[in-house]
Each structure stands twice: as structure tokens, then as C-alpha cells.
Amino acid sequence: MTQITQGLSYKFTLLGKELTSHHFQALANFFQRYHLVHVESQTKTLSEGQGHDATQFIVTAEQPFEILRDLCLSFSETEHVDLVVQSLDFNTKQCRLVCFDMDSTLIGQEVIDELAKEAGIGAQVAEITERAMQGELDFQESFRARVALLKGLDIDVLEKIASRLTINEGAARLISTLKAQGIHTAIFSGGFQYFAEYLQKKLGLDEVHANTLDIQNGYVTGEVKGTIVDGARKAELLKELSIKLDIGLEQTIAVGDGANDLPMLSLAGVGVAFRAKPLVRKSAKQAISHVGLDGVLYLLDYSDNQIETNHI
């Protein structure tokens, strides 16, 4: 039998492209249905009328965090907005590291699928990628199988693909704000180092860790060099970088969308599933699906005014 925790306070953040009276009434009904006590005096409007809205609530609840998280996911799916619950144990002002997955998180593409298109095997590789990201296949095994299919690909296509990558909504705003606050940023990617370094230069990230394609005489060999960056390696990198920066894991945020991101999402102080696969949304501590990546800023208690004036 699950033991109920008495009277703990949590932070709920409601996010959407345009929050209406309908959404706030639905949230009021949600609070009432599950006997959640909303402390009205602590409600904060963090964003309004800027292409996205965000309002923060402090709520006292008897249910444990895991149940509240599941209830928030159900609300989000029904109302087509994001309702995110966080423990007040996470001190947003002490966040010192934010690490990102790359493919389908910072960018809109899965780079290995783009490489496969150039090799004429796009559909075959895309199917394997989707199953791996859903958690249906072992990442390392499926990754090696996909890379092997790229054997003989001319490296000239790398620059071509990089030039057509699309940065996901809100990524530039999020990273520039984090940089302005002196927060360390990193990519931990199961994709490829060439593209991670391209994004590092474009967005100004502090460091990147990804897989290195083996190239000989200007062609992909179908192999990768060094340790494959899978889910376990992402978690290791988060630990290693935290030690390097002399911070605790509770001072970190991780953002990703695939099953191979779950180890780092569970390890970080805040683990955000961004427009993620169903398994990842259900497993991560937090999930954002209806706003851009800069929605993470509101989970850090930043308001639009603070972001634009850099007075945080």
C-alpha cells in the first residue's frame, strides 16, 4: 500500500501558446477534484502575450510526486497545454548546468536519418531510429547497425546536411539566457560530433559530446570511433561534468526526447522530456510538449521581463 505524504508543497507551472479562461477553469476544477490546495497569494504570471503564456502556482498536496506527475500528464494531454509539477526542493537559483540531447531536441531532425536519405536508404534507417527512440531496440546495437548501412557515403554530404538543420523553437532564447546567467551548457548526443560542433558554434554552447564517424579517404567506413554515447554514457557524462564543475547533481537540468535520454533525465535535478516519445513523457520527472524549449526558463522561475532585461 502506497504511503501518502501529508501536506507537501509543490510548484505547478501551466504553459501554453495561449492560455484562456477555459484552461484556468479546467485547472481550478483539477485542483478541486484531487483536493489540491492552491495558495492564491503565491500565484505568479511569468509570461503573457509573447507567443506563449506561463503561470506558476504553489499547491499543497497529500499525494506523492509520482502521482501528481501522472495527473499533470493526463491534464496536459486533455487540455493541449503543459502542466508541470516540481518539488520545491529544487532551488532554481542554484542551477549551474543544463545538458541537452541534440536530435529532435535542439534540432528538428534525426541526423542519422538525414545521412541515410543521402545514402538512398532513408526509410530503412528511419524505421530503426524510431523503434530505438521508443525504447523497443537496444540503442548500441541499433546504432551500429544503422551506421554500418552508411558505408561508402561521401563526407561532402555532412556540410550539406548541417546547412539544412532546423533549430527547434525556443532553443536560441533558452541558451542565450542560460549563458547570460553563467550557467554551463552542454550537448550529450547519441548523434554525431560533426553536427554537435556545428550547433555548438551556432548556439554558443560550452561543450559537446557525441559519436565520431570513422572516415577514410573521404568516405564513411560504416564504423564509429571510441565509446558510443548511449543512455548510460549520457548519465556518466552528467556525473563527470558535475564533478568537473564542482556542483551537485541537484544543480543540473537535463532535456531530451528519446528512451536513451532517460538515464540522464532521471539523474538530473530537473529532467525535462521535450516533445518526447510516450515512454519518455511517462517516465521523466517533467514534460513539455506544447511550447518551445524556452519553456524550460519558466520552470526556473524566470519571467519574460527578467529574461529580456537580464535582471534575474
Q: In brief, what are we looking at here?
A:
The protein is 40% helix and 23% strand.
Overview of this structure, please?
With 312 residues, the chain is α/β, with parallel strands linked by helices. The chain folds into two domains: 89 residues, Alpha-Beta Plaits (2-Layer Sandwich); 157 residues, 3-Layer(aba) Sandwich (Rossmann fold), CATH 3.40.50. It contains 13 helices and twelve strands. The strands form two sheets. A seven-stranded mixed beta sheet has the order 9-8-7-6-10-11-12, with helices on both faces. Strand 8 and strand 9 form a beta hairpin. Helix 3 packs antiparallel against helix 4 and helix 4 packs antiparallel against helix 5. The longest helix is centred in the N-terminal third of the chain and has 15 residues. The protein is elongated, with a radius of gyration of 20 Å. Pathway: Amino-acid biosynthesis; L-serine biosynthesis; L-serine from 3-phospho-D-glycerate: step 3/3. It catalyses: O-phospho-L-serine + H2O = L-serine + phosphate; O-phospho-D-serine + H2O = D-serine + phosphate. GO terms for molecular function: L-phosphoserine phosphatase activity; magnesium ion binding.
